[in-house]
Amino acid sequence: MMENDKAIEALTDIRSMMERSSKFISLSGLTGVFAGVFALAGAAAAYFYSAKSFGPDFLFGNLQEGQKTDVLTFYCVDALLVLILSVGFGILLSARKSRKTGQSVLDKTAVRMLVNLAVPLLTGGIFCIALIWHGIIGLVAPAMLIFYGLSLINASKYTIGDTRYLGYAEIVLGLTCCFFIGYGLVFWAVGFGVFHIAYGLFMYYTLEK
Amino acid sequence: MKNITAGFNKVFESKIRLGIMSSLYVNDSLDFSRLKELLDVTDGNLASHVHALEEAGYVFVNKQFIGRKPNTSYTITRNGRKAFQEHIQVLENIIKNI
Known about the structure:
heterodimer; A: mainly alpha; 0% strand; B: alpha+beta; Arc Repressor Mutant, subunit A; 3-stranded antiparallel sheet; elongated
């Protein structure tokens, strides 16, 4: 009996050590939930702003030049706010969780995860700026979803949970969105809002409860 | 009962050595300070356990200079990988055979 308990304890130690030394385990599922809520709020703000100014059936392509710039500026500020709030809450929650797991917030695994996340993400960000620059607004939302999905898949090797599958889902959604130009806002709200909340809750209840 | 624990590796009996082997098993190489941070042990303690694993031929020590600072990093050897796998197998057999 004693032998058995010892063996179980040793195997548990081995497993936790392998995870702790190679994966960033302090990412909380709640980060996803918060990011999703901010994204939905941001999408709602963008929708109401456009609907109020241009009617509920507005399509970006039908706007006049001057109106386009107004909407674009609002969208950019809106998206930036969502990003800042999400990342801010992410850092805050990770710091809180890392006190529990005993892993320091910015250790090697965290840095490795962030680098792997950042490379495709920044590429996507610059690509989106280029799209806006050339006036190809319809492809901005799909590009955001696709590049975000690729970033998640790339970073998933260094995180616990099934971040990979969230990445696949974002890519499928992004590619679908490419063929429904004009509905970018809806797809964006689903990908960054609904998916994040669903995945965050799933992760929170399976891994942290 | 005796058969099951045959092959139980004495070198891995300490918790710290198990920790060192576990983390080296999933990382290409780790340096001294990173191992120390992961295991939360003192310099002397870590050094002596790593030395024991090196003597057994399970860990390869790589000393080099990064700029002017000496840096010691550790890699698991092929034998170490095999011995650790066998050790895990023994632990699993113990659980299965109660």
